């Protein structure tokens, strides 16, 4: 509970419950989702970058509408040359747009044909019963490690896709259970992990 100055204590959990939030979206009462914290971190970083850029890049001159003090006590109007000079200076809006574009490009994942994170999730859900750690609990010599895959002619993404889709020997077919994208993702995951197991 948080006490707001001069009022009754404020109950954040009750406030969140009044809006019908579910367990995956709790306000100060549960785990923060990784994507939400990542977004908050990026927003903070961009805000700090914009503030830093405004401190170091903006010209150190008086504002456009501010009168400039001369040698005398009377304020003078800015000259046409000074107005043109300030009009050509860096705009905070342009700097913010450039930094925002840079942050968007730098923090996005590249568009790959295979999603290795999804492949790992599919592997964990469907394959680890027999292939935990790249091993094979049914036929011990037919592991998912690189040397075994090379020996049996399966060290190729298309060969792994065929094996997962159609099955072979004691391995069941997953073509009816998994979609083509999931099969491609898990095949790429196995191929990439083969030399690491």
Write up what this structure looks like.
By secondary structure, the protein is mostly helical. Helices cover 50% and strands 4% of the residues. It has helices at 12-18, 34-56, 80-87, 92-107, 116-126, 128-131, 146-151, 157-166, 180-193; strands at residues 2-3, 9-10, 68-69, 75-76. The strands form two sheets. A two-stranded antiparallel ribbon has the order 1-2. A two-stranded antiparallel ribbon has the order 3-4. Strand 3 (68-69) and strand 4 form a beta hairpin. Helix 2 (34-56) packs antiparallel against helix 4 and helix 5 (116-126) packs across helix 9. It starts with a strand and ends with a helix. The relative contact order is 0.08. The model is unreliable at 1-8 and 10-32 (pLDDT under 50).
